[in-house]
Design a protein that fits this description.
The complex is a heterodimer. By secondary structure, chain A is mostly helical. Chain A is 78% helix and 0% strand. In chain A, helix 3 packs across helix 5. Chain B is flat, with a radius of gyration of 26 Å. Chain B has a two-stranded antiparallel sheet with strand order 1-2. Chain B has a single domain, classed as Orthogonal Bundle (MetI-like fold). In chain B, 29% of the residues are buried. The chains are: A mainly alpha, B mainly alpha. Chains A and B meet through helix 3, helix 4, helix 7, helix 8 and helix 9 of A and helix 6, helix 9, helix 10 and helix 11 of B. Chain B: It is a multi-pass membrane protein. Chain B: GO terms for molecular function: transmembrane transporter activity. Chain B: It holds the Pfam family BPD_transp_1. Chain B: One of its GO terms (biological process) is amino acid transport.
């Protein structure tokens, strides 16, 4: 029943010049849907990881500990000014190779770090750097008069941070954080470079057999369009919920 | 800052008197001020020192015949890496030029009188801003033919041109957004004021609005250039012989662990050396604009 519906749809699209016959082949359809799932999984794992990395990096940048802040600043600058693909290669082809060699010396034959994990780590750190910059800007944007007012009310340093400074900083930083997450969703496509079976990779496998590049690319773009749209809708909702009446805008 | 220092420094060495700039005394660039100056430019000085150290190390190694094998290989592959980087730079410059022209046109069209045009531009911008760059590069690489038939003859359509087109698509969408944002940031009171001076619409646009817009667009435009340059690394995935591809070939040909580590670090350093100064200058510009 479902299959006839699908084949009807494929037949209906044929006159437009789009050939979606691969959807009728159970194994190719399965691979493509798995690819969609892997991309979603990458996003769902990387978004929270990148936010955690961003908070940690922002804390280090604003810690006041000069050596720590200096090292973090260097890491931030290098990450921002080099391509994600090269970072991914440095992690997967260099670091992973060294780890595998070391493990072999210790008598461990298999490396537990998969390409999937490396993509999550690299993309999380890469976007974490951008989150950290947004959060730092947010922390610096809290007016000093507000902080003075809070201090004069007798709030302790911790209370000041958790009840005044961070809530305001989060609200200032939220628009750029949402932007960063949209970028992050797009960035997961780079996973295909090291053969993680995301939607881009599975599509390459299919179109190298069938030569139906345009059809698959439209589906990929639709999928990424849907994911980025969901992120921006969620971001707008959050902005609305966190909005303080009479503050900002 | 630099100029001020140079002037002070030059004033201290007054003509006719013995150069005494390096002795510590009254009225001279004192050691603390020199140190403060060095501190302010610490990262550039560190980069220079690293280059200098390398510059001294290389002749020492070749003179004593103790060049580490990995560095010897790097020395051999370095020209290939640089010509690969040149491909990246060329692609980024062309994509940026094409994308900027198209983006300015689109940005202008987004203020069109007709609703259909405005909607079409909005959709274009949305689609190409939210599409992964890698997917767009695949799109232009595989959808366009190998060669274009022109007047009976076939004109080859090389892959790097397709990558330029693939990168120009998101560039044009983002430039359109930057342009639209800059125009909207000009207070509408300026239009009214200029109108009351008797200027025509086109005159207001050209002589009042545009000069201010260009200044506001410069920083985000440079940011975009840096990000497009980084995206050119994706060209290696569709078979363009760029710097990333060259590094991979080198790493596979030499097949030594230490060389692989070295060449990927050099790859990282090359991109950093090209993109960091741009990012640095952009931030300088942004800071200056905040003061207006």
């Amino acid at each position: 029943m479902e299959n006839t519906l699908l084949s009807d749809a494929v037949q209906a699209l044929k006159p437009t010049g789009l050939n979606y016959e691969f959807l009728l082949d159970a194994s190719e359809r399965g691979a493509f849907i798995r690819g969609l799932g892997v991309t979603l999984e990458l996003c769902l794992l990387t978004i929270p990881c990148s936010l955690l990395a961003g908070i940690a990096l922002a804390a280090m940048l604003t810690s006041g500990n000069r050596p720590l802040a200096g090292v973090t600043r260097a890491f931030v600058e290098i990450t921002r000014s080099t391509p994600t693909l090269v970072q991914l290669y440095c992690a997967f082809l260099v670091l992973n190779m060294l780890i595998t060699q070391q493990l072999r010396e210790w008598g461990v034959s298999s490396n537990p770090l998969t390409p999937f994990i490396w993509v999550v780590v690299v993309v999380s750190l890469h976007k974490g750097v951008f989150h950290a910059e947004a959060l730092r800007a947010g922390i610096e944007a809290v007016p000093s008069t507000t902080l003075e007012a809070a201090r004069s009310l007798g709030l302790s340093r911790m209370q000041l941070l958790s009840r005044v400074q961070l809530p305001l900083a989060l609200r200032f930083a939220l628009p750029s954080l949402v932007n960063n997450v949209v970028d992050l969703v797009k960035m997961t496509a780079v996973a295909s470079a090291i053969a993680v079976g995301d939607v881009t990779y599975e599509s390459i496998m299919i179109w190298s057999q069938r030569d139906n590049v345009l059809e698959l690319l439209l589906l990929i773009l639709l999928w990424f369009g849907l994911l980025t749209w969901l992120v921006s809708v969620a971001g707008r909702r959050l902005e609305h919920r966190l909005r303080m009446p009479g503050y900002g805008q | 800052m630099v100029n001020k220092f140079v002037i002070r420094f030059a004033n201290d060495i007054t003509p006719g008197s013995a150069p005494r700039a390096w002795s510590v005394g009254p009225g001279l660039p004192s050691l603390p001020s020199l140190l403060a100056h060095a501190k302010r430019h610490a990262r550039w000085i560190a980069a220079l020192a690293a280059l200098l150290a390398l510059g001294l190390l290389l002749p020492y190694w070749s003179a004593t015949g103790t060049t580490p094998v990995a560095f010897a290989h790097l020395w051999k592959w370095f020209p290939a890496l640089l010509s690969g980087l040149w491909v990246n730079v060329g692609i980024s410059l062309l994509a940026m030029a094409l994308g900027t022209v198209a983006g300015l046109l689109l940005g202008a069209l987004s203020f069109s009188r007709w609703r259909a045009t405005r909607t079409a531009v909005r959709w274009y911008v949305q689609v190409f801003r939210n599409a992964p760059t890698l997917v767009l590069i695949y799109f232009t690489t595989y959808v366009f033919p190998f060669e274009i038939r022109l007047f009976g003859g076939g004109v080859p359509f090389p892959d790097w041109v397709k990558v330029v087109l693939g990168l120009a698509l998101p560039t044009s969408a983002i430039v359109a957004e930057i342009f639209r944002g800059a125009i909207q940031s000009i207070p509408s009171a300026q239009w009214e004021a200029a109108q009351s001076l008797g200027l025509r619409r086109s005159q207001i646009f050209r002589r009042v609005v545009l000069p201010q817009c260009l200044r506001r667009m410069l920083a985000p435009w440079m940011n975009l250039y840096a990000s497009i340059t980084m995206s050119t690394s994706l060209a290696s995935l569709v078979g363009v012989h760029d710097v990333v591809d060259t590094a991979q070939i080198a790493s596979n040909t030499v097949a030594r662990t230490d060389f692989t580590v070295l060449i990927y670090l050099v790859l990282l350093a090359l991109f950093f050396a090209y993109c960091y100064p741009i990012a640095h200058a952009t931030r300088g510009l942004e800071r200056r604009h905040e003061r207006y």
